[in-house]
Specification:
- The structure is a homodimer of 198-residue chains.
- Chain A is an alpha/beta fold and 198 residues long.
- Chain A folds into two domains: 6-54, RecR Domain 1 (Helicase, Ruva Protein, domain 3), CATH 1.10.8; 77-169, 3-Layer(aba) Sandwich (Dna Topoisomerase Vi A Subunit, Chain: A, domain 2), CATH 3.40.1360.10.
- Chain A has seven helices and six strands, in the order H-H-H-E-E-E-H-E-H-E-H-E-H.
- In chain A, the strands form two sheets. In chain A, strands 4-3-5-6 form a four-stranded parallel beta sheet.
- In chain A, a hairpin with a 6-residue loop joins strand 1 and strand 2 (64-65).
- The first copy, chain A, is globular, with a radius of gyration of 21 Å.
- Chains A and B meet through helix 1, helix 2, helix 3, strand 2 and helix 4 of A and helix 1, helix 2, helix 3, strand 2 and helix 5 of B.
Chain lengths: 198, 198
């Protein structure tokens, strides 16, 4: 036995399965959890449990929620004329943080990726079409990632919805604070293509 | 509310408290735990719980254990003439992995660090002296870290034990695969000081 405790070994193995956690970090985290006050470690265990038992997916927008519908869909002060389509719940958090969007969201829970076998039926695209048909939205903002999969998804949605509603795509260009000299050629090409009057 | 679930927010905060886990990694881990099969996430929670409820400290060597004494102290095939002193339980794992030591261990559970208020009484040094007085060891190998605190601890142990037993210190020098040109001056100085006949 390499470790002096099977429980410890089991914990290290499970931690090492998490994304961006290697074997060494897993070891460090396990020893940290052994060293801190027991209550702190047990609270983390309970937080993981709660997130899997009490958290649901909003039937309306597909975002993570504790109520049905979620607090964003239920909020009457949000602008119900605008719908922002994103890939993942984390994207909602990022856009909310930016503070410039006050409409509703639709979380696809992924992006089109034929190589991984992910087609339109694996995403919440049918729900989106139903929402658009029923919702009377003024604008659908497609905020999928500027990656091959995200762009493919945006194109697909455009084909599907452009006759029903005004569709826009978030801008792609140089990030704020970037160094033009060091930016990659595709980003720079998109920044030039997307240029605007000053 | 920035997150659409308080449970999720709580989990992210607790994950971000772990060493080497920043806010962004915590977010990523939390979403990962939401995405994997529930059983996988719940098993991690249970592994954390078990490690805090069923794991004890060996009264003999101070290592992490599930039995009293631990399986290393209880193993009759280990060479009871050699005692290796280390700072932390993780160090025992590292030395076991090297495969060259077959004696017993003594885990100090830290190193002398006056600036942090850690003195000899905060470590398992008294237990070590008792073990040395009673154990009839042929050699004590001091394998504390080659850091200021680890070296200070080694010096302290040397003062305390050199009249009782043969004390050795693990070698400090260039790590295998290192580039001489790129190694720091202190390591290189130690490597030259510690030179041996070929």
């Amino acid at each position: 036995m390499e470790y002096s405790s099977k429980h410890l070994e089991d914990l290290i193995e499970r931690l090492a399965k998490l994304p961006s956690i290697g074997k060494k970090t897993a070891l460090r985290l396990a020893f940290h959890l052994l060293k801190v006050p027991a209550e702190e470690a047990l609270e983390l265990a309970r937080a993981i449990e709660r997130v899997r038992t009490d958290v649901v997916s909003c039937e309306m927008c597909g975002n993570i929620a504790e109520t049905q519908p979620c607090y964003l869909c239920a909020d009457p002060s949000r602008d119900h004329a605008f719908l922002c389509v994103v890939e993942q719940p984390g994207d909602v958090i990022a856009i909310e943080r930016s503070g410039v969007f006050h409409g509703l969201y639709h979380v696809l829970r992924g992006s089109l990726s034929p190589l991984d076998g992910i087609g339109p039926d694996d995403l919440r695209i049918r729900d989106l079409v139903t929402r658009v048909d029923e919702g009377g939205y003024r604008e659908i903002i497609v905020a999928t990632n500027p990656t091959a999969q995200g762009e493919a998804t945006a194109h697909y949605l455009n084909d599907l919805l452009r006759d029903k509603v005004r569709l826009t795509r978030i801008a792609r260009g140089l990030p704020i604070g970037a160094d033009l000299e060091l930016s990659d050629q595709i980003t720079l090409a998109r920044a030039i293509e997307g240029r605007k009057e000053i």
